[in-house]
Recover the amino acids of this structure.
């Protein structure tokens, strides 16, 4: 029992030690041999420290109302000509990436997709969202989808609205369909 406890304690201790010093390790991939490792250069040390700051400090406006940032979890609805096209849950991350779980698509056809976004105005954002589509029976890729959004968060920070386009391509990247419409989002909080 004592030997097992010492082994577990030593293993956990080494793991904590390794994790604490991992950020300053250099692997050498892509380093220029004549230059010292990044953490030895003062300007690189500052950049490395900046990289570990929460991205919301960079992305959120200092004068924006509390919660007005796009960062967070949203229930979204996409409509075109009054007809619901899709709905789901979108998570906008502070690092400029986004992921959506589409409620309008079956998991066998692929209901998760990924995006990248950037701020375009005080409360405005654009999103480039890509998705894959699979045949539910065979599992074969039957297309790729490009979803573009332009959205604006309201002054409360709890809702957004905007426009979207969806372009569908076959596996050879030939255009198959184009759709445009409106998107709305309602923030989901930990208290709901």
């Amino acid at each position: 029992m004592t030997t097992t406890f010492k082994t577990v304690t030593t293993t956990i201790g080494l793991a904590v030690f390794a994790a604490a010093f991992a950020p300053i390790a250099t692997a050498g991939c892509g380093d220029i041999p004549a230059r010292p490792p990044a953490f030895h250069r003062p300007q690189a040390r500052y950049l490395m420290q900046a990289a570990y700051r929460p991205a919301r400090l960079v992305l959120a406006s200092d004068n924006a109302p509390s919660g007005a940032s796009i960062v967070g979890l949203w229930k979204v609805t996409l409509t075109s000509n009054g007809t619901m096209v899709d709905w789901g849950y979108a998570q906008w991350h502070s690092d400029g990436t986004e992921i959506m779980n589409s409620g309008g698509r079956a998991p066998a056809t692929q209901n998760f997709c990924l995006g990248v976004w950037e701020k375009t105005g005080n409360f405005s954002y654009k999103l480039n969202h890509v998705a894959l589509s699979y045949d539910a029976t065979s599992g074969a890729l039957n297309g790729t989808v490009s979803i573009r959004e332009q959205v604006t968060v309201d002054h409360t920070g709890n809702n957004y609205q905007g426009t979207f386009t969806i372009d569908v391509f076959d596996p050879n990247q030939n255009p198959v369909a184009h759709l445009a419409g409106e998107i709305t989002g309602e923030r989901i909080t930990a208290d709901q």
User: Anything to note?
Assistant: The longest strand covers residues 175-188. The radius of gyration is 22 Å.
